[in-house]
Each structure stands twice: as structure tokens, then as C-alpha cells.
Amino acid sequence: MSNNIESVLQEDRVFKPTEAFKKQANITEEKYQQLKKKASEDYEGFWSDLAKEKLSWSKDFTVGLDDSNPPFYKWFSDGELNASYNCIDRHLAEKEDKLAIIFEADDGSVEQYTYKDLHDEVCRLANALTAQGVEKGDRVVIYMPMIPQAVFAMQACARIGAIHSIVFGGFSAEALRDRIEDAGAKMVITANAGRRGGKSVPLKGAVDEALEKGGDSVRKVIVYKRTDDDVKMKDDRDISWHDAVAGMSNYHDAVMVNAEHPLFLLYTSGSTGKPKGIQHSTGGYLLNAHLTNEWVFDLKDSDVFWCTADVGWITGHTYVAYGPLSMGMTMLMFEGVPTYPDAGRFWQICQDHGVTVFYTAPTAIRALMKFGDDLPKQYDLSKLRLLGTVGEPINPEAWMWYHEVIGRGECPIMDTWWQTETGAHMIAPIPGVTDLKPGSCTKPLPGIDAHIVDEEGKELTHGEGGYLVIRKPWPSMVRTIWGDDERFVDTYFAMFKNKYYVVGDSAHLDTDGNFWIMGRIDDVLNVSGHRLGTMEIESALVSHEKVAEAAVVGKPHDVKGESVFAFVVLNQEIPEGDARLALVQELRNHVAKEIGPIAKPDDIRFGSNLPKTRSGKIMRRLLRSIAKGEEITSDTSTLEDPSILDQFMQPNK
Ligand code: 6R9
Q1: Binding-site sequence positions for ATP
Q2: Which terminal residue of the chain, N or C, has fewer Cβ atoms less than 10 Å from its own Cβ?
Q3: According to the UniProt entry, which residues carry N6-acetyllysine (predicted)?
């Protein structure tokens, strides 16, 4: 991460919106000033007016913000609506035949769904879920590949008021079980397998494994048949998607829920071992999902929007499953990987489907950049008009490549800072208004009250790095950690006694008021834009029979941003030669089994003890230096046993 910080500090290029873009922009300078003025003069009225204008309510709300019990804020809390109705039904009168979803499968085959098709699919499934005993407020875990049925499942849950909780298809049976149990899920919706890079990726087997040793709350498992792979079906528990929807009506009256009714849970990593079930509301979440697609992505009826994120992450919720549909737009979904059959796949898809707005992660940009400029140049990318990035700071080099090679030097780059907890973009450019600087996510959106403060909570001005915080509650903010209000308060609000929502990132401001995100300040790694708790990986390592103790740090990585680097103390002698290499492999696979392949350490080093201070604190700073291959120049005299550093510096061979 430090490379990023150094290079962003020197960055002074400015890219102004072009006249052509300004002319057609959803948000003009004038409109932007009006929004900002309204937000500063009448904060509650600002959000309430937008909620009335942008969303369809079955019962109007009379209260905007309820802040009677901070930090448990409520928005529009006497109003009623349904998220799926807002994403589908309200568009039907005018847009029945408009494409809602264009899907390109791993093998290149294409499916298209109009808003009417989407309606029918979602209604049939909603009726099936009800027939299988799912009721309003029940939790449904969705463990699916990146196929339209994943969105149908989310929308069907929303339609009946069930709370979905997606578990990324790359997570292991163990991780799946933890999440099922924490949520107390009544149903799991899965597929026999998915397809990625020409290979079949099994899913149903992991569900079976997860439910073998727990997950007792689960009554039914619905299995979508995506591939030809056969799977075992458990008689009284499993039902095929095909059978479940057979004979179901394509009519379903969406269940209207209170604006505060939880729309979904999404588990994310924090500084402690156990993932947190981030709970989002229906009304507030949908409002910011809708608005940011309109403001930041400038979406219009003529656009084809492609967000490459998997629905297993928050980005796939807000910018695949809900936001674009709430706006009645056409969005693209892709099942496969960026490098199959070759590294031109993204550009081929943009060309073939006339993608106009494209949103991906810096890690993908860096990976594709390595293949050179010739590959993207083979494709016609002239329809692209706006590009976005999310997940981690983007280094200026990658920003410039994205802008020049993919965006012909014309497409503005939206570097969007936000989190699972914030629900939608928070600090991001408005494309017809904001001057861009490569590496900066620029300024808070209208209504977002972001600041940088020091340890005492004093606001910092430009130059100094500090804690990124949000002062005023906003509609799409996390409502609580599922089942753990206390952890919610401790994690996000305790540090400054409820005065701010504490983000967990450090940042600094430049003289133009632009925000530069520096990285996580807690023990959370950002590997290819995915959040991984160091504690989670440490717990996974320690659960191996040969491991006594483990410490995990992040190491800067060209493509992934950070990679996982583990220091391990064994409860047996450190093996040598091939036996050591075999153990490294065994431990890496063990982490993949406990969490998922994304958490596999790239490097594992062994020592007879971890470097600790005399008071027993692991000196992670030293471990980070070793991971980076830096010479240790700092004083190590407070270490209990300085000689162990030498052990950890030895690569395995
Ligand atoms: C949306 C998402 C959130 C963390 C966040 C920060 C990092 C995300 C960023 C960024 C710099 C950006 N992050 N976007 N850092 N610039 N544009 O990624 O959610 O998975 O919860 O991760 O990702 O560290 O705190 P999530």
C-alpha cells in the first residue's frame, strides 16, 4: 500500500469534464450546487424529497430521519414500499420490452431478459419460495454463480420480504456454514455448479458439507441446474429450481414492507475472527443505490451498464442487482473470468454488447494492463462513455492506462470510495462537474458529511493523514450487525463516542478538498479488492493440527494490491527441504478449505516463536518489514528473542 501512498502524493494532473460530457450530464453544475445547498440548509428535507421523487411508496412516510436512539438511525420509518416492485413493476407500463439483463455466459452464449421476462421469472420464484414455506423476515442464504438466476433469487426474496444473505461462491463449506448459522437461515438457494474459465465450479457439494455438521435452521435447499454435473439430492430437503417453479404463476403481489425492514445481510470481514453480518434497510438502501447510479454513473435509458462485480460482494448488490434496475436501465452480467479464453474478454464483451458505462476494480485493470495495449485495441470500444473503479486505491499509472487505452482519453474515470457498510458510493466524482485527479476519489457526494479527524476527533485540513469518518447519518448506512448491536456500536461508533461513523480507513485531503484514501487502519487486508480479516486467516491456520500460532500481514502486490503473508509457529519441529514445501502447500490448502481460495497465503514462513514484545504483543510492524523484504533497521531490543527474526527471513527451499 505504501507504494500507492507515495505515488498519489506526487500526483498533480487534473482532468476537467469535457464540454460534450457536461452538455448531456444528468447532474449539471447548476443542479449540483442546488443539491449541495439543499443538503446543507435542510438535511432531512434533502433526503426526504429525493426519496419521494425517486422511489415508489405504497404508504408515504412522514418522518425523514429518526435519530432518537443514536447510533441506531432510521430513515423514512413510517413509510412502506417493496424493493422488487421498485426495480421491476413500476417500469412495466413503459418499459415492458426494454432489456433489463443481458447475460454473457462463460462459454460465450448470450441470454437476454426484458423487464417483462424479469418480472415473470422473479414472480414465479417468489411464489415458489412462499410455497416452500419462506415468510417475511426469514433469512435465505444465496450461494450461486454469477448468473441471472442469482439476481432473480435476490429480487424474489425482496419481493416476499425475506432477507437474503449472499455468500460468495468462492467461499468454502466452512465459511458458508458459519454464515448460515449466524443468520439462522431457513433456506439455501444454490446451483449444482457454476462455470468459470471453461471449468465447472461445484457449489451444491459445499452446501451439503456445510449442512452435514450444522446449519440446523435450514429446512429447504433449492438447486438450480446450471451445468451437466450430477449432484446428490437429499429427498426431504432438496428441491430442484425447475420443479419448485413448475406451475407457479407469473403473477405475484409484492409484499409491502416498512422502510426499515431489512432487505439483506452481507457478511464482511472485520478486525476480529468472526465475520460481521452487515444489515441493510429497504428504503434508505434503495434510495442511495438509485441515486448513485444516476449521479455518479450518469445512467440514461440508452445506456448498457456493466459492473463486473460478483453478486457475492456489496458492489454486486448495489450496482448489479438493485441500483440499475431501480432506475429501469439495461445491465450486463458476465459469468466468467477476465482472462478466458484470453485477456481480451472484457473488451470483447464491451464491444459485442455496446457497453457504454463500465465499472471494475483496480486489480482487474492492473492485471489486464500487463497484457499490453494491443489486445484492447483489437476491439471497438467506441461506445464506452464513462468508466468506474472500486475496491481499493487506484494507482495513477493504472488510472492513466484505463483513461487512455480503454477510455480513448475521453471517458471520465469515476474512482468511487465506499464500503459494504455504507451501501452505496460516498466519496466519488460527479462526472459532469468534478475535476478528476488520478488516484483520488475526489469529493463527498451531496448529502455525505465526510471528514478526516485526528485521534482526539479534531478535524484535519489538507495535508495531514487521519481517520476517515462520516458525521451525519445517511439513508443507506448499515443498521446494525446482525444479532450483535453491541459489536455494531463498538466497531463503528465507540471511538468518538457516537459523534462519527468510523470508516476504518485512513485518508488525507489536498488543498482542493479532494480525498485521498490511504488504506485500512485496522487488521483488514485488501486482496484484489476483497476484504479479508488477518484474524480470520490466523484462526484458519491455527485450526490446523500442526500449527501452534500464526500471524498474518499484508504484503504490497503489483496486481492484487496486497497479498497474504503468514508467519507460523509449529507445534513440532520445522521440517526441511521437500517436507517443508509440502507443509506450506498443506497449510495453504487448509486456509482455502476453511475460508476460500482468495484467502490462501502467497508465502508462509516458519519460526520457533512470533516476534513479541516483553508484554506479549506481536510486533506486526517487523513482520510487515520482513514480508516486504526490507532490512530491519529499527530497534528490536524490546523483543523477547530477536534471533527469531532471522528464522522468518529465510525463504522456504
Ligand atoms: C465497495 C467495497 C471497503 C474497503 C474500504 C476501503 C477500500 C473501496 C475504494 C477503496 C480506496 C476506493 N476501498 N473503494 N479504497 N479507493 N475507491 O469495496 O466494499 O468490500 O466493504 O471494502 O475497500 O479500504 O474501507 P468493501
Answers
A1: 391-393, 415-420, 505, 520, 531
A2: C
A3: 617
